[in-house]
Amino acid sequence: MKLNSLTLSIGLILIGNQLSNAQQYSFGVFADPQLSWFNSDTKRYDPNGPVVGLNIGFTADKFFAKRYAFSSGLSVNALGGNIRLMQSTYTLKTIDSTYNIAIGDNIKFKSQYLTLPIGFKFRTNQIGYTTYFANVGVSGSLRIRSYAWNETNHVDRETTKTDMAWGFASYQIGIGGEYSLGGESAILFGITWCDGLTRIIELPNSTITSQSLSLKVGIIF
Predict the structure, then answer these.
(1) pLDDT, tens digit, 9 for 90 and up, residues 75-85
(2) pTM here?
(3) 115: domain CATH number?
(4) How many domains does the chain have?
């Protein structure tokens, strides 16, 4: 009986040590340059090129096993794109004025969002100084502010009022690596693809979503 109790105690201690080692946290900061553009489900609106933006924030990973983690964070994310009207006119409303956009005209939108991603991170064993990873997940974004450009009406970075959705959801897939600087510190690098699940622009009779490709650059502490 005593032997069984001793064996059980040792087993519980070993399991506790393993869980304690596995449930570690990792934090980092990043500044990701990216290209973003629109995707349309109708011929009424033609996606007409990307815009350059920056996604700045921090990451937080909680490891539930040696090489697997729940991944999250928070960032200020600049997204947008160009859209051309193909079959109907549009009334663009900004803080400064109201503009009638003709068929064939292009509108450039760019917005800042507060983005919260949630997903999983999968890491390899360390190879040399580098640990490679992949992550998948979903994110929600809330609009902070948005701007519009239109050459015909001389609209130059005017704040929009109702054109951009107040928020949208998307999914992301990323791959990259962590180059060790010693201890827990590492340089973070990789690429991330994001695709919208809900509309980002409130254009009538359409679902316009956002897509982006970013270059991940950061530091893990």
Answers:
(1) 999 999 999 99
(2) 0.86
(3) 2.40.160.20
(4) 1
